[in-house]
Amino acid sequence: MNTKGFTLVELLIVVAVTTILLALASINFSDYNVKYNIEKQARQMEADFDNVRLTAIQQKKRYDIRLSAKAYTFAVYSSEFDATGTTVSTTSVPYQIQSDNSSISFDSRGLVTNAASQKVWLLPTGTDAAYDSLFITTAKTNIGKRQNDGTCTLK
Questions:
Q1: Rounded-to-integer distance, Cα 39 and Cα 130, Å
Q2: Percentage of the residues of the chain whose pLDDT score is greater than 90
Q3: Using 50, 70 and 90 to split pLDDT, how confident is the model at 2?
Q4: How many Cβ atoms from other residues are within 10 Å of residue 3's Cβ?
Q5: What are the distances in angstroms from CA 127 to CA 35, 40, 113?
Q6: What is the tens place of the pLDDT at every residue in 125-150?
């Protein structure tokens, strides 16, 4: 009997075990990828919203952030008599946005004027993302995690 090498059964078992392990790893990687991208979008939106607030203070002009399901748009107003504003930029996003209001208005002092506080969520909810929502108050933008009851736990 020849003892050198591997039998066909041994090779098939190794291939089967390797295939199962790779399948499990790819499932976990897909979940991790969704989690990472939601967190990335939340961080980017927080930075953009803070930048608009600071620009409103610096230029002493009213700015709006207009929210839609897959994008947000920045608009600047030339004066208090300007009713429509001029679009500065639009940012498309991969994950859907849901919000209390369709717009966030910053006055020339960088304060939110159209509501005391607003929540912005990224969908899908229920992921393991550490943060998936924004909580915008009169003077600050916070990042947080949406809870099942609709509240936002700040991070």
A1: 7
A2: 60
A3: low
A4: 4
A5: 6, 14, 32
A6: 777 888 999 999 999 999 999 888 87
Query: Could you count the other beta carbons within 10 Å of the beta carbon of residue 95?
Result: 19
The domain limits of the chain are 8-154
Phi-psi region of 13 (alpha: psi -120 to 50; beta: other; left: phi over 0): alpha
Quick check: 122 and 135 in contact, CB under 8 A? no
pLDDT digits (tens, 9 = 90+) for 65-84: 999 999 999 999 988 788 88
Q: Read off the tokens for 42.
A: 């939340």
Token digits for 112? 């939110």
Q: What is the rounded CA–CA span in Å between residue 126 and residue 93?
A: 19
Beta strand segments in the chain, E = 63-67, 71-76, 86-92, 97-99, 103-106, 117-122, 133-137, 141-146, 152-154
CA angle 111, 109, 64 (to 5 degrees): 60
Report the C-alpha gap between 58 and 46 in whole angstroms.
18
CATH topology of domain 8-154: minor pseudopilin epsh fold (3.55.40)
Q: What is the pLDDT of residue 148?
A: 81
